[in-house]
Design a protein that fits this description.
This protein has helices at residues 6-29, 46-51, 55-88, 95-107, 110-123, 130-154, 159-166, 171-199, 203-208, 216-224, 230-261. With 262 residues, it is mostly helical. The protein has one domain: MetI-like fold (Orthogonal Bundle).
C-alpha cells in the first residue's frame, strides 16, 4: 500500500483541523462554567441544566423533531417510488424531465428553493406554518432519498421478484414481501439522511415558516445575532450529537447493505 508523503499528510491534517477544530471548541465551551464564552471558568454542566428552563428553545427543538420525523417519512416514501420508476421502467416519455425534477433540489441553492416555495405558497394562499415547512423539507429530502434507494435497486437481483411472481404473487405483494425487505437498509439510510437534512435546515425553513413555526436552527440563529452564550453552545452540542448519531447509523446501514450484496 502506498503511504502518504509528509506534505500530503500535513495538508490532510490541516484540512481536518480547519473543519473540525471549531466544532471541538464549541463542544468544549458548552461545558464552560463562565458566562463568557471566550474565558474558561472550569468544567460545568450548568448550561445544559439551563436549557431545561428555556421553554422557547425547548418548543423549537420539539417542533424541529416533529418536522424532521414527518418530512423524512414523506421524502423517503416519495423518493422510494421515484427510485423504482427510474430503476425499473427503463426509458419512458418524460424520464429526463422527471429525473431532473427529482434531483433538482440537490443542486439548486437553498435560497432559490426556499424563495420558490414561498412564492408558491403565497400564490396558492396557503397559510405558512408546520405543514408548509414539512412540504419544503420533504421536497429537499426527496432527491437524496431517491439517489440512495436507486443505487441499491440498480444492483438488485430481480430473479427473486420473478420467482415470487411465477408463484402467483401480485406486483404489490412481491414488492412488500420480497423487494422492500431486501432494500430496507437503503430505505432506512435514506430516511436518516432526510431526517438529518430537515433537522439542521435554516434557509428553507426561514422562507416557508410562519407564526408559531420557529424551528430550532431559526431560534439559535436569532439568539446568536444578539451574542453567543454558553447556553447556545450547549444546544448546538446536542444538535451536533443528534446529527452525528443519525449520520453514523446511516453509514453503518449502508456498509451492512454492501456487505450483504457482496
Amino acid at each position: 500500500m502506498r503511504r502518504l508523503g509528509p506534505g500530503l499528510l500535513l495538508a490532510l491534517i490541516a484540512g481536518f483541523a480547519f473543519l473540525y477544530l471549531p466544532i471541538v471548541a464549541l463542544i468544549a465551551y458548552s461545558f464552560n462554567a463562565s458566562r463568557l464564552v471566550t474565558v474558561w471558568g472550569g468544567f460545568s454542566t450548568r448550561w445544559y441544566h439551563a436549557l431545561l428552563d428555556n421553554q422557547p428553545l425547548l418548543d423549537a427543538a420539539w417542533l424541529s423533531i416533529r418536522l424532521a420525523l414527518v418530512s423524512a417519512t414523506l421524502a423517503t416514501c416519495l423518493g422510494t417510488l421515484a427510485a423504482l420508476a427510474l430503476a425499473r421502467y427503463g426509458r419512458f416519455r418524460g424520464r429526463t424531465l422527471f429525473s431532473a425534477m427529482v434531483v433538482a433540489p440537490l443542486v439548486m441553492p437553498e435560497v432559490i428553493t426556499g424563495l420558490s416555495l414561498l412564492l408558491l405558497f403565497v400564490a396558492a394562499d396557503v397559510e405558512r406554518g408546520f405543514w408548509t415547512v414539512t412540504i419544503a423539507h420533504a421536497t429537499l429530502g426527496l432527491g437524496f432519498a431517491c439517489i440512495v434507494v436507486q443505487a441499491r435497486l440498480v444492483g438488485f437481483e430481480r430473479s427473486l421478484e420473478e420467482a415470487a411472481q411465477d408463484l402467483g404473487a401480485t406486483p404489490l405483494v412481491t414488492f412488500a414481501t420480497v423487494t422492500l425487505p431486501l432494500i430496507w437498509p437503503s430505505v432506512a439510510a435514506a430516511w436518516m439522511l432526510a431526517f438529518t437534512l430537515s433537522l439542521d435546515d435554516l434557509v428553507i425553513a426561514s422562507f416557508t415558516s410562519g407564526p408559531g413555526a420557529t424551528t430550532l436552527p431559526m431560534r439559535l440563529y436569532s439568539a446568536v445575532r444578539l451574542g453567543v452564550s454558553p447556553e447556545i453552545n450547549a444546544a448546538c452540542t446536542i444538535m451536533i450529537a443528534a446529527v452525528a448519531v443519525a449520520v453514523i447509523a446511516s453509514s453503518l446501514l449502508l456498509k451492512r447493505q454492501r456487505l450483504a450484496a457482496g
